[in-house]
Amino acid sequence: MNPHDEHAIRDNWELLKQELNIEEFVGKLVKAGVWSPHQSDFVLNSAPLDRDSKGQRFLETVVKSGSKCYQTFCNILRESKTNPRYETLIKALSIQHSVSPDSGVSYMGSPRQSTTLSSISTTSSMSLNVGACAENPSGDRNERMVSARAPWRADDLYHPDETDEDRPGTPAEAVHAAVQKASDATSGNLDMVTLEKELVKIAPTIADLFSKIHTQTTTVVATSEEELKKIREDNDRLRKTNRSLVEKLNSFQQKIIQLQLENKKLREFNDNEKTKQTQLDEKSSELDKLKEKLIEQKHLLEEKERELDMQLEKLQMVIIDNEEQKLKLASLEQLHEEGLREYEDQQYQIEELQKEKDQQKGQIEVLEEKQKMSEQILQRLEERLIMLEQRSNQKNKTRPRYYGPSRPWMNGMMEKSHHAQVKLQPQFPTDFSSSNIGGKGGKGWNV
Asked: Pick from 108, 240, 247, 440: CA 20 to 30 A from residue 278's CA?
């Protein structure tokens, strides 16, 4: 591919990726026979399938396919120039709307380097000579006038079979037509070969102009005022024509100087491009290697991504299990709190029962003490009864039996037994509280 074309693509790389309809251009390139189905499949179906990656593969394939592919690509853009997006790309790439094979302009609109400095210097010397003639239109210094044909390579470029009908009517029109034919309609650049041919064509017209000026200023003799007036008008008209011609040729000379500078820059650029091309080739191979590495890394990353997805699913399962465990723990905590409350209630009941038990134990001790006291009293009563029986027996033996009045404490009758059994009605206290036990006399009985 032409280095200028590749440089233009590289400069507008991101813009092309964003603006181009990749599927449309790939289909048209395959239809034009420039690309194979394999290239189309590589651009459209290789991973990744996002828009940016497709654009990257498309532009790389265009650069690798050469100038023919790029020319077809430019033709497709020109056919789609009604689309505002593609019109922006056409302006960015400096693509001409029409290219003639003999225009001397490259496909990107930049001037070719085939024009030599000799032709440029020849043309500039011609314009300077014409300017010198234009400054001396009068007959006083006719000997200084110089013909405009001096430095031209007429043998190679001028064709005598052209008729006068093909020439423009005035020298100014001829110069304007030459500049129009040699200039690019879109970029405004000049092609030196075409310009040289056109200047050779108009050289006779300019020479006729100067010959008319010479003959009118030297040989014409006025015979009347009307002829003098006519001659003056012709001279004025010729001067105006000459002035416009000089102005156009001066502007033309400035363009020639600009072209000389551009040619010099292009030569330097061409030398630099050769070294840059080798560097670009090396970088391209390095980029291809890097691209392969990136593809491998991409596959590894995709595998890792799948692993991460699996781990993420496991983590989600663990999170769900943790939430279930939290719910279970919450329910267990609730049950534990209920158990604690029941335990506290039971402890309270146990304490109450313990208090009741202590109270009952105290009552039992009091009752046991009362029972012991009552047993002691009964024992003393029994001992007293025995003593009384013994006394009564002794009295009966010594004195006659005398039945006196009944004792108030005896209520019953004696029975025959091994000892006297007395039926008593003891006045026992009915209240067994500790205050009443052991009351009067400390014995607890009222006899």
From this structure: 108
| Cβ-based neighbours of 415, under 8 Å, separated by 6 or more | 421
The structure tokens listed for 204 are 């006779």
Alpha-helical segments (H) within 142-191: 154-157, 171-182
Q: What are residue 183's DSSP bridge partners?
A: 190
CB 34 within 8 A of CB 56: no
Q: How many CA atoms lie within 13 A of 15 on its CB side?
A: 14
Which residues, other chains included, contact 226 with Cβ-Cβ below 8 Å and sequence gap of 6+?
none
> Rounded to the nearest 10 degrees, what angle do helices 22-31 and 37-45 cross at?
170
Q: Coil, helix or strand for 22?
A: helix
> Please, which residues have CB within 8 angstroms of residue 13's CB and are 6 or more apart in sequence?
59
Nearest one of 411, 432, 433 to 422, comparing CA atoms: 411
Distance CA 256, CA 124 (A): 7
pLDDT per position as a tens digit, 346-378: 999 999 999 999 999 999 999 999 999 999 999
**CB-CB contact of 5 with 108 (8 Å):** yes
Output the CA angle 406-439-432, nearest 5 degrees. Answer: 95
Q: Residue 437: phi, psi to the nearest 5?
A: -75, 130
Query: 113 versus 258: which is more confidently predicted?
Result: 258
Distance, in Å, from the CA atom of 391 to the CA atom of 368, rounded to the nearest integer, reads 34
The per-residue pLDDT for 274 is 78
Which long-range contacts (C-beta less than 8 Å, at least 24 apart) are formed by 56-64?
56/17, 58/20, 58/22, 58/25, 58/26, 59/9, 59/13, 59/16, 59/17, 61/35, 62/9, 63/1, 63/6, 63/9
CA distance 347 to 353: 10
Provide the token pair at 230. Answer: 């006519």
The predicted model scores a pTM of 0.26
Is the CB of residue 374 less than 8 Å from the CB of residue 384? no
Quote the CA–CA distance of 11 and 198 in Å, as a whole number.
Answer: 36
How many whole angstroms separate alpha carbon 116 and alpha carbon 111?
12
Amino acid at 185: A
Report pLDDT for 444. Answer: 45
Contacts of residue 234, Cβ cutoff 8 Å, sequence gap at least 6: 216
Q: Where are the domains of the chain?
A: 3-93, 117-285
Tokens (6 digits) for 10: 């590289």
Q: If you average pLDDT over residues 237-266, what whole number do you get?
A: 78
Q: How far apart are the C-alpha atoms of 192 and 255, rounded to whole Å?
A: 11
Q: What are phi and psi of 291, to 5 degrees?
A: -65, -45
Q: Which residues pair with 190 in a beta bridge?
A: 183
Determine phi and psi for 117, rounding to 5 degrees. Answer: -70, -20
Q: Provide the CATH number for the domain formed by 3-93 in this structure.
A: 1.10.533.10
For the chain, count helices (H), then strands (E). 12, 0
The DSSP bridge partners found for residue 427 are 446
